[in-house]
Design goal:
One of its GO terms (cellular component) is plasma membrane. The chain has 627 residues and is α/β, with parallel strands linked by helices. It has 25 helices and ten strands. The strands form two sheets. It has a six-stranded parallel β-sheet. Strands 7-10-8-9 form a four-stranded antiparallel β-sheet. A hairpin with a 5-residue loop joins strand 8 (575-580) and strand 9. 45% of the residues are buried.
């Protein structure tokens, strides 16, 4: 009997009944999982570290938590359903517009690259870990999957250039259902012993999964959209009905063909995210919250099932196996997938360096190990510890090295000058247009659809509709070329929150907000962004001037027309906003740190309408061309 079972029997003998024990166990999973993510955020480390450590401590080390006794036969169906919801949420984050640029490489990564990874990993497991051919093939299939929940934070931290971010996001989501089916088919081949028919079985299974998953996923997504579009589902039930449909689609697909459910819900998420008939931001935000809870719970439960004795038996050959996955299998898969694609070698090298594993691999290892041990396969007990070693090792290696490697390869955004505007009001649009005219990238984010719609009509292509303060927003806002944030909403507190939120991405020195609208809105400096522009320029005053006909103008300075001459010309009424340096850099005029523009630089300023009207025609300095 396990230590956890002994603890359970002891608790019952002390008067804790089964209901109380189950309640205590469930509460422990929720509390420990969320607390681990919270602590990880505080100490700035990947949450998977603490989740695995706490799971081990709560399970095999102390016996406090016994997932098998807690859930019984419902454990692995619950795990499968949770993974389905996680992949559905992942599908919601994918935008099909990028496929025209990354489609070819992506197709190869999830086909040729997957097969190359499977082959290399299987051979390494056979030669290094002492597994027989069937177990080697199975663990190779399990480890072709990626870790989208790990990839996302890495990409936010590194901010790679070009289409690297989209490629890794799409691969991380699509490879999971395909890899799961591959592992299931290998598992079935092992059980039935039909090794001669393995290739035909795998090809047939993949085709059936694509047909069933695509068809049912498409129909399920369209049904949800149709009902919401026609008002047949009340607003407060949008999330619940969508979740219900995900569960139905997953279960129905699995009944039609085993393990087609994950591909089905992934397709369903992609279609819902990319349709234009309804707004789904609230659905995405709900699924983001639910996914965070599920991921933490799954890692706690699965790591609590680990046998410490199996972990301690892993020797140096296991570390060599991990090295093969990182330094041989992944680079080989990427080399084959990108051959002839025209992708620059630096981007190919970065792709070859990023391939973490996550919750899907952990879930598969736990499920297959239990089934195979019941069928009398002694080596099945090694599947779980090896898989968790790979998960932990990949997170450590990639977590510590991805950013330095990206900088070395020059694929990380180096000193980006662009601006993310929180708020897409006419004021934000006017500022963004002035910067775009100077060749500086901009992105407008707003939860007000009218503002976003107006911005798109005015030609702003990089916009984001939704709450920019959610974790999901960091994955979906296009920050290519963006290096700072301007919080420009009418709400002072919202501006402060936005500046603090994006300070994690851009740094506190590049997080700006407008000065508060009222004197009693004083804020503690470390709980807000830097105040930009002038102290007498709150949101309502700047918006009033824009509405009254004020213009944002860019003026070149020279030895003959320096900053003093500029101020004199505009009667000292011009409000300096930015300075564009001779090298194209953007300097922001802050309330407490005014700049000293020099000849050769360009100053962007707000000119009041009455000053524009009074300006003498033909005497204004010529505006320089946009860089």
């Amino acid at each position: 009997m396990s230590l956890a079972s002994d603890r359970h029997d002891h608790d019952v003998s002390r008067g804790i009944n089964m209901t109380e024990y189950a309640l205590l166990g469930l509460a422990s999973v929720v509390v420990l999982g969320i607390a681990a993510q919270w602590m990880a955020w505080f100490v700035r480390i990947p949450s998977i570290f603490l989740l695995l450590l706490i799971g081990l401590a709560a399970g095999p080390l102390t016996g406090w938590l016994d997932p098998q006794a807690l859930f019984g036969d419902l454990l692995f169906p619950s795990v499968s359903l949770s993974v389905a919801i996680i992949l559905f949420e992942g599908g919601l984050s994918l935008q099909t517009v990028v496929l025209q640029d990354i489609g070819r490489v992506l197709r190869r990564l999830v086909t040729i690259g997957m097969l190359a990874t499977w082959l290399a990993t299987s051979v390494a497991a056979y030669l290094l870990l002492g597994l027989d051919r069937s177990m080697s093939a199975l663990i190779g299939a399990m480890l072709v999957v990626s870790g989208p929940t790990v990839v996302g934070p890495l990409l936010r931290h590194v901010r790679p250039i070009g289409h690297l971010r989209s490629t890794l996001q799409w691969e991380g989501i699509l490879i999971d259902p395909i890899g799961v089916l591959l592992a299931v088919l290998v598992f079935e081949v092992i059980l039935i012993g039909e090794f001669q028919a393995a290739t035909a079985l795998i090809i047939k299974g993949m085709l059936i999964m694509v047909v069933v998953g695509s068809g049912l996923g498409y129909v399920s997504a369209k049904v949800v959209v149709w009902f919401i579009q026609r008002g047949l589902i009340p607003d407060y039930l949008h999330n619940a009905v969508t979740l219900m449909t995900v569960v139905m689609a997953f279960t129905g697909a699995n009944l039609l063909y085993h393990e087609a459910g994950l591909f089905t819900v992934t397709v369903m998420g992609i279609i819902i995210a990319n349709q234009k008939a309804i707004i789904v931001r609230h659905i995405i935000e709900f699924k983001e919250t639910l996914t965070g809870l599920l991921i933490s719970g799954l890692f706690i439960l699965l790591s609590a099932r680990l046998d410490v004795s199996h972990l301690t038996q892993l020797g140096g050959s296991s570390l060599v196996f991990l090295g093969v996955l990182i330094f041989i299998a992944r680079p080989a898969a990427v080399a084959l997938s990108t051959m002839g694609s025209g992708m620059p070698w630096r981007e190919r090298a970065f792709l070859a360096w990023v391939a973490p594993r996550g919750i899907v691999a952990a879930a598969m290892a736990s499920i297959f190990a239990l089934r195979l041990q019941a069928e009398g396969y002694p080596q099945a007990s090694q599947l779980v510890p090896i898989t968790f070693l790979v998960i932990i090792g990949c997170v450590v290696v990639y977590g510590l090295t991805t950013a330095p490697v990206a900088r070395w390869l020059k694929v990380a955004q180096d000193n980006p000058q662009g601006v993310l505007f929180i708020g897409a009001s006419p004021l934000s649009q006017a500022l963004a247009q002035a910067l775009q005219d100077e060749g500086i990238a901009t992105c407008l984010a707003d939860s007000n659809w009218s503002n976003i719609a107006a911005a798109r009509l005015n030609g702003f292509n990089n916009t984001y509709y939704g709450n920019a303060l959610t974790e999901d927003a960091l994955d979906n806002i296009d920050v290519d070329g963006i290096g700072r944030v301007f919080a420009l909403t009418p709400n002072d507190e919202a501006n402060a929150l936005a500046a603090l939120h994006f300070a994690e991405l851009f740094g506190r020195a590049e997080a700006y907000q407008l000065v508060p609208s009222t004197a009693d809105s004083a804020m503690v400096p470390h709980l807000r962004g830097k105040f930009f522009f002038a102290e007498h320029a709150p949101y309502h005053e700047l918006s009033r001037q824009i509405a009254s006909g004020a213009a944002i103008k860019t003026t070149g300075l020279s030895e003959q027309f320096d900053y003093d001459a500029f101020q004199t010309y505009y009667q000292y009424a011009a409000l300096p906003l930015f300075v564009i340096t001779s090298s194209g850099g953007l300097l922001v005029w802050t309330a407490h740190e005014p700049l000293a523009p020099a000849p050769g630089e360009r100053i962007v300023s707000l000119i009041p309408a009455e000053i524009l009207a009074a300006a003498t025609p033909g005497t204004a300095p010529a505006d320089p061309p946009a860089s």
